[in-house]
UniProtKB/TrEMBL annotation:
Residues 310-329 are annotated as: Disordered. Residues 9-134, 157-280 form the VOC domain. This is Diguanylate cyclase. Pfam families: Glyoxalase. The lineage of its organism: Archaea, Methanobacteriati, Methanobacteriota, Stenosarchaea group, Halobacteria. It comes from the Archaea. It comes from Haloarcula pellucida.
Length: 329
């Protein structure tokens, strides 16, 4: 078997929320991401699936949520993505601290990590999130959405995820199989101080890093935790090769599943974190024009025939608009 094409990095991260409207308000108005798809959980069609991303839904920018209202609050622990970090332009963290003060966001002091400045904070469900200052190159593939946040401060896709694992070694080997290269270790700051953080880098410019930290703390999935992290396998051929490599490593990946905007393969890595492999095509504009992304409830495939029943079971949500927010001030 030949080695698979290395993954360019993270494709999306999917999390569990509680309140649909509060989730929409926070990720659009407070953080300035665009709602690029308003849909349903295809495995649980009575639940929304929200996709927040850059202006065009570029691979490597989508933070997505299942608002399971009946679940309890989760606990971050071993076998989970413990932190999700986004890139922001150099010099913008002062803006973000001022914004977090204005909107009442719970945030911590900045920390330095691998030579970069990190601002940790939490969403309304307690989900641990971070902003990392980086230099955004002229040819960066992300397209900032600027309805609520100015371009010089706007979130520009993923920086990294941090995995908490009881035994990091098998996962480190898996990341190497997937095309990540180990680029450094340092003592952890901010979370689990004193433990060693190991960083792995993918080949692409967005969603480049996976950090691994050891922990024996137990976790529980629920509100404020990550459900899974997806990695880019841009083509079907890339995905199949990666699937075979993962299977050869001793894991049990699913067959390819059509998720309408990308095709997916899922597996639990050695430490218990749910990984997904996701293609780049067909993308979020496959069923909506770019300028209308997120404006309506999209029901893929067979679910369109159940629209009346599905809509009746979903909580109404209102998407924030900048002009309305200004009028309310």
């Amino acid at each position: 078997m030949t080695d698979p094409t290395p993954t360019p990095g993270i494709h999306h991260v999917t999390c569990i929320a509680s309140d649909p409207q509060r989730t929409v308000d926070f990720w659009i108005e407070t953080l300035g991401l665009r709602l690029v798809k308003r849909s349903i959980n295809q495995d649980d069609p009575e639940t929304y699936h929200f996709f927040f991303a850059d202006a065009e839904g570029t691979p490597g920018t989508s933070m997505t949520f299942f608002p399971w209202e009946d679940l309890t609050r989760g606990t971050v622990g071993s076998g989970q993505v413990s932190r999700t970090a986004f890139r922001v332009p150099e010099g913008s963290l002062d803006y973000w601290e001022d914004r977090f003060d204005e909107y009442g966001v719970d945030y911590d002091d900045r920390v330095e990590r691998f030579g970069e400045t990190v601002l940790p904070f939490r969403d309304p469900d307690g989900l641990p999130v971070e902003l990392v200052e980086v230099e955004i190159p002229e040819d960066d593939p992300t397209v900032p959405w600027t309805e609520f946040v100015p371009e010089d401060s706007a979130i520009r896709g993923f920086h990294s995820v941090t995995l908490w694992l009881a035994d990091p070694a098998p996962t480190a080997d898996l990341l190497r199989t997937m095309g990540f290269a180990e680029v450094g270790t340092e003592q952890a700051q901010g979370d689990r101080p004193g433990d060693e953080r190991t960083r792995f880098a993918a080949t692409g410019p967005v969603g480049t890093y996976v950090d691994v930290l050891p922990t024996i703390e137990s976790g529980r999935q629920g509100h404020g935790t990550v459900h899974h992290v997806a990695f880019q396998t841009p083509t079907d051929e890339d995905q199949q090769a990666m699937r075979e490599a993962v299977q050869s490593a001793g894991l049990r990946p699913t067959q390819q599943i059509d998720r309408h905007w990308f095709r997916s393969v899922y597996f639990r890595e050695f430490g218990g974190v749910l990984f997904e492999l996701a293609t780049s095509d067909p993308g979020y504009t496959d069923d909506e024009p770019l300028e209308e992304l997120g404006e309506r409830l999209v029901l893929p495939g067979k679910f369109e025939g159940q629209r009346e029943q599905i809509e009746a079971g979903l909580t109404d949500v209102t998407v924030p608009r900048a002009e309305q927010a200004e009028a309310d001030d």
